């Protein structure tokens, strides 16, 4: 499936979770807005989950783009990106006779590139989390795009859209995602961090705008 279409389908889960939050507020006769009582705070796990779902959709999108583009980086007259070459060199470290023998099946395979990329997926890519700005930069360097946020910024008009602004906002959403997923969204004192459905909506909308521009960058490369 096309990476952008897959992102749209995945991020739709975020929209559905926020919609479910609103439906349950109505079902409990809590009104459309307003502070929730202690016994209804459980509803806020829906917008929290929406943030996690939206970041996961971004992660899946970047993985898909990298996997789709890698096979096209091999061929006559094509210079393999430095970042990719470094990762592949780690997979075939021929330093002595024993390591050479271990590499022979790969070297004589009729589909050597495909085998190398499968090894890259199994030993490296599947363990990466392409969510934080620095990890996204790392992912796009693998496919030869060394200034991805600068290129995205050029496509994003308006204030607060410099590369640093874009990275800072993404880092904030990823940090909150990690607090929700790994810390139960608790403050150091054990109190639950406040959450509003509008925050989840803003996160989803920002990521959709980011991914649309990332897609333009890749298509233009």
Q: Report on the biggest sheet.
A: none
Terminal residue distance: 20 Å
* Overall pLDDT level: 93
**Envelope shape:** elongated
Strand content: under 5%
Question: How are helices and strands ordered from N to C?
Answer: HHHHHHHHH
The residue fraction in helices comes out at 55-70%
The number of helical segments is 9
Nearest-angstrom radius of gyration? 21 Å
Structural class: mainly alpha
Task: Give an account of the 3D structure.
The chain is mainly alpha-helical and 221 residues long. It has one domain (3-76, 129-220). It has nine helices and no strands. Helix 7 (148-154) crosses helix 8 (163-183). The protein is elongated, with a radius of gyration of 21 Å. The two termini are 20 Å apart.
What topology does this entry show?
Elements: H1 3-27, H2 45-69, H3 82-91, H4 97-108, H5 112-123, H6 133-142, H7 148-154, H8 163-183, H9 197-220
Summarize the structure.
The chain has one domain (3-76, 129-220). The protein has nine helices and no strands.
Give the key terms.
mainly alpha; 221 residues; single chain
């Amino acid at each position: 499936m096309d990476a952008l279409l897959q992102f749209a389908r995945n991020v739709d889960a975020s929209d559905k979770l926020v919609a479910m939050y609103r439906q349950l507020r109505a079902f409990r006769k809590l009104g459309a807005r307003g502070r929730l009582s202690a016994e209804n705070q459980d509803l806020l796990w829906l917008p929290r989950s929406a943030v996690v779902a939206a970041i996961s959709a971004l992660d899946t999108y970047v993985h898909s783009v990298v996997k789709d583009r890698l096979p096209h980086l091999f061929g006559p007259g094509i210079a393999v990106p430095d970042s990719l070459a470094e990762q592949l060199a780690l997979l075939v470290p021929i330093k002595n006779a024993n390591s050479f023998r271990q590499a022979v099946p790969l070297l004589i395979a009729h589909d050597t590139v495909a085998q190398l990329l499968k090894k890259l997926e199994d030993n490296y890519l599947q363990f990466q989390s392409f969510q934080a700005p620095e990890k996204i930069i790392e992912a796009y360097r693998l496919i030869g795009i060394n200034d991805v946020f600068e290129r995205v910024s050029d496509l994003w008009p308006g204030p607060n859209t410099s590369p640093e602004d874009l990275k800072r906002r993404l880092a904030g959403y990823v940090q909150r995602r990690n607090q929700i997923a790994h810390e139960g969204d608790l403050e150091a004192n054990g109190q639950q961090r406040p959450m509003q459905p509008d925050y989840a909506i803003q996160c989803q909308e920002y990521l959709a705008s980011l991914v649309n521009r990332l897609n333009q960058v890749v298509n233009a490369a």
